[in-house]
């Protein structure tokens, strides 16, 4: 379990993290979400004892991480995939980590196999792609079979097969009862993986809830309708209290009535329908709405 209490980090000009309080529980995948610059990496570094908080505390299983003598056997973390010695091979890098953390040497081959790098184990890390470096970072995190795992933007640079693999891996680690905390700036990366979400913006907590609770915040389902008589159908549906928006491709997006009711109304009014499709609101959209006020770097909009 990871517990963060009133955690604050102030740099000279920026409040990178401001009074954050949340808990990350075992047996679940918890997504740590926020736009660029929200303070995710700074928070993770403080949890791992790599940065000192200005105030507040972060503990792993009840104690600050830097007090832990068992290192990689207690917590595995992927922070910056580039933060490894490029002149070494993957095997040499992992073997050194295993040695200094009292982990049996056989784990090196096991984790290389697990992350799909067995064939590249003897190659210099300097020649690895970003995706391969991410896999190596994940291998290092898994080396000591720790109960707590922390991954900062692990999906960056992975190919589609890698994305699927890593999602399955996180689910499996959680099912084994481990604490799995994964940061991302994209909701889409988390919606098929996370059970719980911690959302931050400008260093402050915006939401800490289950994915289901988060989904319930979004603005309800919309229905796409295609008809040869858009004007007639629009009048019919707005009279019944729906909002109808014409789309560029000639279809209508209807909110406020469900597909069954729209079909019924059209049938009774003898309006022909060519399409009637329900869309559940996208979580990405809900995430963007939720964090809109705290987006620091907005394309095309000087602030
Ligand atoms: N060493 C530092 N000195 C000064 N400011 C810093 C330092 N590290 C981070 N910051 C600032 O703190 C804020 C939070 O940065 P952080 O890297 O934690 O965000 P993030 O959520 O991980 O962002 P991203 O998704 O872009 O990685 C930013 O405004 C950043 O510029």
Automatic annotation (TrEMBL):
Concerning Gene3D superfamilies, the annotation shows: P-loop containing nucleotide triphosphate hydrolases
SUPFAM superfamilies assigned to the protein according to its UniProt record, in alphabetical order:
P-loop containing nucleoside triphosphate hydrolases (SSF52540)
Question: Which superkingdom, per the lineage?
Answer: Bacteria
- SMART domains attached to this UniProt entry: AAA
Which Pfam families does this chain map to? ABC_tran (PF00005)
InterPro entries from the UniProt entry = AAA+_ATPase, ABC_transporter-like_ATP-bd, ABC_transporter-like_CS, P-loop_NTPase
| Protein name per UniProt | ABC transporter ATP-binding protein
């Amino acid at each position: 379990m990871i517990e963060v209490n009133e955690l604050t980090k102030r740099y000279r000009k920026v409040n990178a993290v401001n009074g954050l309080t949340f808990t990350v529980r075992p047996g679940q995948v918890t997504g740590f979400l926020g736009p660029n610059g929200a303070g995710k990496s700074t928070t993770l570094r403080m949890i791992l004892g790599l940065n000192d908080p200005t105030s507040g505390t972060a503990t792993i299983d009840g104690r600050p991480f830097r007090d832990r003598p068992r290192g990689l056997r207690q917590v595995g973390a992927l922070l910056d995939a580039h933060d490894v010695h490029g002149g070494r091979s993957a095997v040499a890098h992992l073997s050194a980590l295993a040695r200094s953390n009292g982990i049996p040497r056989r784990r090196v081959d096991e984790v290389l196999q697990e992350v799909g790098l067995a064939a590249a184990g003897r190659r210099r890390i300097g020649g690895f792609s970003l995706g391969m470096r991410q896999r190596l970072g994940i291998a290092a995190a898994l080396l000591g079979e720790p109960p707590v795992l922390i991954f900062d933007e692990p999906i960056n640079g992975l190919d589609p097969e890698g994305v699927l693999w890593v999602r399955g891996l996180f689910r499996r680690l959680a099912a084994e009862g481990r604490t799995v905390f994964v940061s991302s700036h994209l909701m889409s990366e988390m919606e098929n993986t996370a059970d719980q979400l911690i959302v931050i913006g400008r260093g402050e907590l915006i939401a800490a809830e289950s994915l289901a609770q988060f989904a319930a915040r979004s603005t309800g389902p919309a229905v796409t309708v295609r008809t040869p008589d858009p004007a007639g159908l629009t009048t019919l549906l707005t009279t019944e209290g729906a909002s109808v928006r014409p789309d560029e491709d000639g279809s209508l997006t209807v909110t406020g009535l469900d597909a069954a009711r729209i079909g019924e109304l059209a049938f009774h009014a003898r309006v022909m329908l060519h399409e009637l499709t329900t869309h559940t609101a996208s979580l990405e959209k809900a995430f963007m709405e939720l964090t809109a006020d705290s987006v620091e770097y907005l394309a095309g909009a000087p602030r």
